[in-house]
Write a structure and sequence with these properties.
By secondary structure, the protein is α+β, with helices and mostly antiparallel strands. It has nine helices and 24 strands. β22 and β23 form a beta hairpin.
Length: 417
């Protein structure tokens, strides 16, 4: 029997069926579930009407309500998520969807946007406007913080695109993101001045793209070079998905990834191609990290909760990123508090403290953490109301192994607007 294919938009700010749907309108309870699911996607438990609910249950209910808007028998659900979302978020989605649909495919939003371009993938760039950033996806991805007014921000986005081999620029303006239409117009004007062809995509056009994409196998679409795995009987063969643990991070994918799952089986993720670096967004901070370094949230053990980005070739080479809201703080005030905390620790663990240091050309508080198997050189920055700490870990006496990656991370670390 031919399966129905439902394309579901997940984020930013909504969960709704793009294709093919009935005239059903989400009721108040469903809308509340969707808001809670989106707000709590990085957590294990969320509050719904002051009642704690497991986030995986929330996502199951949210996606199940969307499926009820159309045919459900033998259904394949195609989840379209923001391209800059992390593997951990995609894992939450696919695990929940696998419980309510026969088969699940997950594609970044740039995959669907690419259906609006006649150019080859290498000459197409997708621009996705979110609440706190603008994600630019070509052969790699760059996240630009929304920390300025639309026209200066549009100029920064256009400048970034000018450095890419882009003939066609697709500008996504979700109706669920405040200020997106105005920003999309400003970006379009700035990009056209650079001689590129611009295609603006609103919700109505995105829905039309979904109708066209529904009839094509995502694994064969021009924006994805991956293939799903099928058995001789035609059913998708599940494989193991090794995602990140639940984390308050957003790892910008270097390229579209295809995620598949059976209703009762585990999930598989396959990245198609990689770039040298990618943008990582952690809470209110964005910075550049190696695209092929696995990322995880560390909430146990010594030290503060942090995001850890680890070299695939040496587990002792890594970046650590933490952040704290510190409105009104100064670098000297930060230095004083850090010095008191360091003085309370055993001697020899934290050394080389410099309250007026510099790293990658930026003023910072710097110090070194000494452990048996590795050292971590910490750089503490202030950017607006956010304190950003970047730890660069390497084996003792081998700082060169992480030096270039470290300098790029520190240089690019900024607070989101």
């Amino acid at each position: 029997m031919t399966q129905h294919r439902a394309i579901v938009e997940v984020g930013p700010g909504t969960v709704r069926r793009l294709c093919c749907r009935t005239s059903t309108v989400a009721d108040r309870t469903t809308s509340e579930l969707i808001r809670a699911a989106l707000d709590g996607i990085d957590d294990q438990v969320a509050l719904v009407g002051e009642r704690p609910v497991a986030v995986d249950s929330l996502w199951g209910a949210a996606l199940g309500s969307v499926l009820r808007e159309g045919p459900a028998a033998h259904e394949t659900m195609i989840l379209v998520y923001p391209s800059w979302w992390s593997s951990s978020r995609v894992g939450v989605l696919t695990a929940a969807a696998a419980a309510v649909a026969d088969n699940v495919l997950a594609q970044p939003r740039s995959w669907l946007l690419a259906h609006a371009s006649d150019a080859v993938p290498e000459a197409t760039v997708a621009v996705e406007i979110a609440e706190r950033l603008v994600a630019i996806t070509g052969t790699g991805m760059v996240a630009v913080p929304r920390s300025t007014e639309p026209h200066p921000l549009a100029g920064e986005v256009a400048h970034t695109i000018a450095e890419m081999a882009a003939a066609v620029v697709l500008i996504d303006a979700p109706d669920t993101v405040a200020g997106a239409p105005a920003l999309a117009r400003a970006i379009a004007e700035a990009v056209r001045r650079g001689g590129r062809t611009v295609v603006r995509i609103d919700h109505a056009r995105l829905a039309r793209l979904a109708v066209g994409a529904r009839s094509a196998e995502p694994a064969q679409d021009k924006s994805s070079g991956s293939r799903s795995t099928a058995t001789a009987g035609g059913r998708r063969r599940p494989r193991t998905y090794r995602g990140l643990g639940a984390a308050a991070i957003v790892l910008a994918a270097a390229a579209p990834a295809l995620v598949t799952a059976g209703r009762h089986g585990p999930i598989a993720a396959q990245r198609v191609r990689t770039a040298a670096t990618t943008s990582l967004v952690e809470g209110r901070v964005t910075l550049t990290v190696p695209a092929n370094w696995p990322t995880q949230r560390v909430v146990s053990g010594s030290g503060s909760p942090r995001v850890q980005v680890t070299s695939p070739s040496d587990p002792e080479v890594a970046l650590h990123i933490t952040q704290s809201p510190v409105a009104g703080d100064t670098l000297s005030g930060t230095a004083d508090r850090l010095k008191r905390a360091i003085d309370a620790e055993p001697a020899g663990v934290f050394v080389d403290f410099n309250p007026s240091g510099s790293s990658a050309g930026r003023p910072a508080v710097t110090y070194r953490e000494v452990r048996a198997s590795h050292h971590v050189r910490w750089t503490v920055l202030l950017d607006g109301p956010v304190r950003i700490s970047v730890g660069c870990q390497s084996r003792p006496g081998d700082e060169n192994a992480v030096r270039g990656v470290c300098e790029e991370a520190v240089r690019s670390a900024h607070a989101l607007g």
